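[audit] Reproducing an earlier prediction to check determinism. Same input, same settings, fresh worker. If the tokens differ from the archived copy the diff job will pick it up downstream; this log only records the rerun itself.
[audit] input (451 residues):
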Amino acid sequence: MILRMFVAIIKTIMKKFNILLAIICIICSVQSIKAQELSANAKAEMGKNNFLPAIGELSTFLSTNPDNEPALTYRANFYSRTGQFDKALIDAAKVLIINPKSINALIVSGVAKAGQQKYKDAILDFNSALALQPSLKPALMLRAQAFFKINDYQKAKADLDLVIKNDPKNLEAYLYRARIYATENDFAAAMSDYSFIRENAEPYSKAKETATNELLKTQEMYAKKLEADKQATMQNMAKSLPAKNDETVDKLSKQVNDMTKEMNEAHARLKPLMENFSATVANFSERAKTIPKSDFRSWSAFYKEINPKLTALAKDFEKQIDKLNGKESLKDLKVKLEGGLPIIYKLIKQTSPYADRYQQYVAEANAMSNPVIEDVKRAYEYFNAKDNARFIPAKKTAITSLNKMIDLVTSAKKDLAKFNDPQFTEKNEAQINLQYQDYNNALTELKARNL
């Protein structure tokens, strides 16, 4: 029952992407669509997902230009965006009469049919579009979704595999494929795809948040499946014993009961820990969204607050994993904890004292850079104008500003090096050295200027 509910949830999630992918296809298709210019009001409303003004303007234009292919294609797409699938199909059909090889019209037609839940008919339209352009990414994505709707998971995965082959960092394709794997109960493959998204998505992005949430749900489903499989195996073993061997049956029954008791106790013990984990990750994500990137003091306070909590949580996870080592009946719980631990480690790294100090340096350097540039620029303006009376004090001010910036860079470099953090050598040291060199070169050149 739980797995069936999970499949239903996955299908509901995927359904929400139908119309979104439609507009992506219109943008990405090889055919260029250029209808007559829409008004500023229509464009503004489109930005609010209100396409009715644009439909009205296109309809007025089409009343005197009924065979205009771009305008018909645009209106067909906007009809789909507003759920008017019948009207979208009429416009798409008109375009295909004018231009039978219009990829845009084929895709809009397919999207409209999918909106009517005519998935097999939609697949035929996507097939036609792909016959004209075999590797068209949006058409492959849409066809994969339609295959998913008719439970043809193998064909859906084949399309997504092709998208990923041509575009290895296409996180949307990984997300759809992970959901299909989860629907098929291939939880290991689903968790692998979700983990890939987490590793490659932008920090605090919707893609990363979605992948994290669905990874946790998949880990939970996987753990429940492992537990159910073990219980079924033990019960089958008991049933397979000879009926006359009552002593053996009783012994095995006791083992099953003891194992069940141990599992229930472990679940009860670990439930608060997992709830704390979910709450901590959610709190981190929500708090991070509220802090401006330039407000390093708020970031610093946030890091100092959250890092000890994350470190304590990681130690709790490690302690519980050690307790579960060697206990085959509790392997599912161990898998669940081990799946959450890398997430905690990564958050600890992002909020470390090193990260705090680097955040402070970036904010201070950004705040100082524009005034420094203005001081140097002003000095050179007076130098080029041969205005010695103004150049001398301007040069002195610029030199002072450059020295302050160099001191800031030097101090940050020394502080960051003390942490012995791999992030410094891998990512930030070269950048800081370059900044240090640039400011020193600017200082040397300015000192050499005299009138």
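[audit] rerun output stored. Observation attached for the diff report: DSSP finds 19 helices and no strands in the chain.
[audit] end
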